[in-house]
Structures are given as C-alpha cells and as structure tokens.
Amino acid sequence: MKLKLIIRLLILGYIYMNSNLSIAQSSLDAIIGSVIDNNEVPIEAVAITLLHPKDSTYIKYTISNFDGNFSFEEVPPNSYLLQLSSLGFKSYFKNITYSNSQINLGTIILEEDLMELDGITLTAVVPVQIKQDTVSFSASSFKTNPDDNLEELLNKLPGVDIDSDGKVNAQGNDVAKIMVDGKEFFGGDPAVVLKNLSADDIYKIEIIDQKSEESQLTGVEDGNKEVVINFTLKKTKKSKGFGKASAGIGLDKRYFSNLNYNKFSSKTQFAVIGKFNNINVTGSNIQGFLKNTNGIDESEEEDSNSAKRTKSLSGFLKTGVAGFNIGHEFKKKEDFNVDYFYNLSENNGNSNSKRITFSNNNNFDYKANNYYSNSTNNHNLNLNYKNKSHKNYRLFIKGQFRADNVVSETERDGQYFISDSILATTNFNKNTIERNKTLSNISLNYFQKLNDSGRNFNIGFNTSLNTFKLNNNQNTFIERGLQNNNKSSREINTLRDESTRTNINNINFKYTEPLGGNNSLKLESYIKNERRGEDVNQYKTTIKTTSEEEILLYDYKHVLNSYQTRLAHAYNIPKFNSYIGVELQNIDRLFGVKKEPYITISNSYINPVTFLQYKPKKGQRYRFSYKKTIKTPNSYESSTVINDLNPFSIRKGNPDLKPEKINLFSLLSIIHNFKSGINFNTRIQYQHSNNGITRSIAVDDDFIKTTSYANNGQKSRFSSSLSFSKRMKKIGLRYTLKNRNLFTTSNSIINLQSNQVDTKDYSFSLILENNNKRIIDVKAGANYSINNTGFSIENDLDRKFSKQQYYSMVDYDFTKKLNFNTQFDYIIYKDNKFSSDQKLPLWNATLSYAFSNKKNDILKLVLIDLLDKNVDIYRNSTINFFEETTSESLGRYIILSFTHRLNRGKKK
C-alpha cells in the first residue's frame, strides 16, 4: 500500500510539474521582441543570444516561436551584446543595457544572406544556432582552460550533464554516440573521445536529434530518434597534425604521461593516443577496469537487491593505454573507420570485509582481510563501414574483436562468528586465476526504399562468438569447532580448467507498407539462435585425517532458439507518433550433459507492444511505452551440474525452471524551455514479473551456502528519476535538483522458508553553479542517498545505510596565463548494522601556468587528496546477507607536470 501511494504521488507530481512548466510567465520577461524577414513573414527558431560585449562569450540564449516572438527571463542588470542568427540570414547585432526595466526591441528584420564575393569570406561567430533537429554551439563562446579535454567543454554547455559514470545527457536525452567531424572516433565510445581530445581543438558542438535510418531514407517521421553529439574541428587543425604531449613526476614515485596526436583532412582522419601512469587514471571506459580492481568476490554481485552500487577504483593501479583511429571517406556519405585500443592495468591492494548473514535463526557474522593483485591486458578492435550515398538504399557493416587476459591472485583470511561474537570457524583461501576471454562480432544492416510513399524493408544479420577459458588453482584451509574446543581441520586443493564457447546468431526482417493518411503497416520477424558449450575438468584433493581425491569431468550443452513474428500499425505525423502491435513468439530450449539424454522444452507466447509519443513544440517530448518480454533461464540457472569450486558457496541449477514473463511500462517527459532556460526531465518505469526466477539458499551449520533457483511468485520494480534545472533570478546562478528512487520487491527461499525482500533506494542532490564562467567557475552541491532493505524472515535484521556528500569546486583565472582550481568533498557514511560510521574529507587542487599568450606550453602542479584519507568504502545488500568493505586507496600525492601543444593555430 505504501508503494502504491508513493507511485500515485509521484505521478501526480509529474502531471503538476508538466502542466505548470507549460504555462508562459510573461510577467517575468525582461527583454522582448519579434523577428521577421524582408517579406514581413515571422521567422521561427531564430537563435537569440546575449553575449559579453568585450569578448562575445556566451551568457544565455532563447529562440523565437512560430509567430517570431521571443523573450528573455531573469536577466541580471548589465550591458550586453544581442545577436540574432538563423541559417540563410545575416546575423544581427545590437548593444543593449538592461537595468530592471523591460526592454521592448520591437520588430527586427533579418536580411537574407545572398552576398557572394570572389576571394572574400565573411565569417560571424554564432554562439547558438538552431536548425531543424540540431542545436549548435560555438566552442569559442565558452571559457575553458588551455589543457581541458572535451569533457570539461561539455560541462559548460547549457542542458548538458555528465554523471559520475561518464554517461552524457543532453537536454534530457541520453547521448547514444559521440562523433568527430561526423565520423565515429574510437568506436563512438564517449569515454575515449571526451578524455583524449582537447577543447581548444573544437570549432563547434552539435547536439543532433538524429532520426532512425529508416526515417532518414524514406523521409517519414517514425519517432525513433537517438541523440548524437558531433564535434567539428577548427579548420586550422585540418591542415596539419595537432595534439599535445604531457608528462609529470611527483612524490612517492608517482608519475604519468599522455600523448595525443591527430591529423585530419577532408577525406582521411588519423589519431593516436597513449597514456602511462600509476595514479589510478585509466583514460578509458572506467567500468572495464572496475571488474578487476577491488578483489571482492564477484560471485555475490548478481545477488544484489539494492540500487546501483558504483564500485570505485581502490588500491594502487598502474595503467598503460595505446590506440589509433583511421577513417577514410571514399566519396560523399560513404566511409570506412577502423580503431584499435589496448589497455594494460596492474592493480593491487588490501581490504577488510564485514558481513552479517542470516538463515532463519542460524545467523552468523563473517570478517575477512583480503589481499588482491590483478593484471589485465585488453585488446579492442572496431571496424565500421557506412554507405549512405544512394538515395534508395543504405548499407552498414560493423565488426568488433576483443581479447581480455586477466591474471588474479587473492588471499582471504576469513573468520565466522556465532552469537555473542564467538569464533567458530576460520577459513584461509589462496586463489590464483587466469581468465582469457575473446569476443568476435559482425553485423550487417541493409535498408531499401521501394517507392516515395514510404514502402521499404530492412534486413539485418548479427553473429557473435564468445570464448572463455579459466584456469583456477585454489587452496583452502578450514578450522572448525573453535567455539567448543572440538577443533577439526581440513585442507582443500582444487585445480579447475573451464572452457566455454557461446555462439549467437540473429536475423531480423522488417517491412513497411504505407496505408495512406500517415498510416502504415509493419511486419517484423526476428530469429535468434544461441549455442553454448561448457567443458569442465576439475581435480579436487581434500586432506583430513586421510587424503581424498575427487574428479569432476563434464561437457555441457545449452541451445536456445527464439522465433518472433510481429504485426503492428504505425501512425506518424510531426507532432505525434504511435506504434501498436502484437507479437507471436516461440522458444525452444535444449540442454544437458553430453552423452546423457538432453532436456527439451518448447513454449509459445503472445507479446503486445505499444509506443506513443507527443511533441507539442520544440523542446518538449512526452512518451509512453509498454511491452511484454520473456526472460528464459540462462545456462547456469537451469544447469544440471553442481558447481562446488568454492567450498563455502556451492551453486546448482534447476532444469525445471520456466521462463519469466515481464511486463514493462515506462513514461518519459522532457521539457527544455529555450526562453527561461528551464530543463525538466522525468522518467517513470514499472516492471512486473510473473514466474519470477528467484534464488533458493540453504545454509548449514558449517556455514556452507548452497544456492539454487526457483520460479517463486512475482517480482516488481518501480523506478523514477527527476531532474529540474533553472537559472536563479538576477543573481547569475543556476540550480539543479535531481531525485532518483528505486523500489523492488521479490521473493526468495532461505532454508526452505519464504523470504520477501523489499528494497527502497532514494537519492537527492542539489547543485549550484554560476552562469558567467569567463573568469571564475564556481560549483557547489550536496547529495544524499539512502538504502532501506527489509526481510520478512526476520524484521530485526532490516537494514538502513546512507551516504551524504557535500562538495565544492572553484576554477579561477588570476591572469590570462595563471589558473587555479580546487575541489573539496566531504562524505559521511552511516549504517545501522555496522558501528563504523565514517567521515571522509577529500581535497584536491591544481595550479597551472602558461608560458605564452598562445598557451602552447603549460606547467601544472597537481595536489591530490591533500588530507591523505587513504580509504574507500563499498556496501552491498543481498537476499540473505549485507556487507561493508573498506579498501585502501591511493592516498595523497603531488605531481609537477609539463604539457606541450602542437599546432595551436592562429588566435582570433
């Protein structure tokens, strides 16, 4: 009932906020006017920008509406340069002074830009330009430091946000891809692009609401769009090579080096990047490194019931990165791109874990000291061919090859305590693992336009091959009966060689038949074939009073075939899109150990799907979608073989599992008000599952946990997010409010007793920053997150933990050559199950000096973790235990670095 009440309140708040944000507040307008052409026709979507009169840097902007009217709200008193710009018209400039009295600019006439002079180019810097589905920003209108990367530049743009995971959001939409000069750069990976190109190399930034390939080909709007950011290089960067080289050395043998070289022509793009450091900087997608950096047992990760648990880069990390990107345009709209990226990381450190495990009345505590050392080698090759040169068809071919080698050594000294903190069992585990993974993937998509009315078809093919090889050498020494002096011990030595091969083939076919009147019929077919083979050779020796040997050999096979046929009706006009269909799906499964009878299961399902989208005007979008999907048990959930590699955590599958039926509802609202600068985005999602696949856990008196799986009732998941950003009236500040909520309910079985787990996660944040960032950039904020996890099996074990984070940042230019930046974070951890509430202050600072006005050579002093708080905290809640892990981190270091920039070009 509480959950339903919260859902209703959120939806009511959602409707209220949307209705209020749609209402124009003309009483707040400070500057108003209208714009027409020479024929007195109003011009829509003209970009009207307020600039600083001295250097023309950006302050704020708005656009004209359908009637050509425009207005600015909440303008601080000052002198401004007003600029009006629109494609095909000459830019209009006017100096104005605002002093708390409304300024009516009247009607402004924009003249058509028809002037062409031989040998003369007239250029005006346009801070903001609106063209159909593209918003373009001039990079020179935003203040950045000379050694800033593209990440720092994007953070200055209105309506753009980058979260802690590196995900980019623009005007309420998640950014799907980042390109350079319209071409993919290192596979379009935002982390690689944003961290390895300099802000000073960029001429303009385009935020593109890109249509689907089908819509681009046929010209029929289908509402399926993705947001893409394209960086256009300065022309001076295209005539010869450009980039930068940096190196630094500091206390405690800390060092780093970076290299970035690029050469772009009208037809060919070439780029090389390289990094080498021991200061925990990856320069790449951080998530790829976190999987092997903290030494925590990954086997429990899938059990987590709480919201996003972002792991941090703890320990001591040495990283090497090298990569290149080559792109070539054969002719207009036909190009080929290849990139290669290599990562080397070596990570080691120590951590301490505290865990409370419950199993009916058999509860116990677990403490462990962990040492880990990991070495990772990663190779990533991407190929991309696009041919959009023909008006009637399009061809896309993509390929990827990835190889990972991980060598991991861990030592874990664990202790099990029963009531009153009585030590009962100790467990010392030493593990050496080598993992080799490869991924090969190739996809082909062909779009064919059959006539001008919208008739078309699309055929796609994708095949992937994954291989996984594991060599595990594990030694475990266990002592039991310490609580009653009935001491016994055993030693287990396990050698396990495991090889897994997974091949997945997907074929899809889509046909669109126009019915007239913006209606169309869509026929879609999807075929999936997945084959997985697992070969295991395990040799185990157990030493008690005598030595016992056990050999486990098996070759396992798992085959999945899925056939889906969908018939749907689509209705598309510029402001409204709908897609309503029904799908027939048949799933066949075959699995089991080879040389034994296989288990075969076949099921058929009817899956409805609905998509509705309404766009009343530019900057507003409302979307509702519903779909039913089927989640089949994976190979280890339905496996007929027991995995006892970890003597304290045994896993076995359930071959009788049925597929899980999932109903997913989502509601999305995006409002980007160009007039007031308001950004308001909400997302609400509800997921309900029948035949939910849940875990069944049994824990015996020797603390050995056996995990299996069962179809145990229903599961539900409700999530919501809200982001509201607005400039504060007349004081030159912008505030951003964010809220995220996650509520999950699922059943599990603990020692044959049903256990309902309810998880509630809340996150609230407030960010304040100044709009005028010419000389000083100031940001301050607070974030509060809380997790409540309740267990029906024992109410007194309900857990609540929270994290408060307060932070501030100041970036100040003392002179044009001297810059100072400082950041301070204060984090408070609280947990009602662990008496280890911690307060963690973190302070970083940098001081940089450029030797010339062109800023080609920069000296920088970097001071990290000045208070030397060498600690990192990770928390986790699952269906039968909760845990806190404290790890050592890099701690304080100071580095002096030097950066040299190549081909900075002429300064305007």
TrEMBL record:
Judging by the UniProt lineage, the source's domain of life is Bacteria
Keyword Cell cycle among UniProt keywords: no
Cited InterPro entries = CarboxyPept-like_regulatory (IPR008969), OMP_b-brl_3 (IPR041700)
Show where the Outer membrane protein beta-barrel domain sits. 449-730
Pfam families referenced in this protein's UniProt entry, alphabetically = CarboxypepD_reg, OMP_b-brl_3
State whether keyword Cell membrane applies.
no
Q: Which UniProt keywords apply?
A: Receptor
Q: Under which name does UniProt file this protein? A: Outer membrane receptor protein involved in Fe transport
Q: What is the lineage of its organism?
A: Bacteria, Pseudomonadati, Bacteroidota, Flavobacteriia, Flavobacteriales
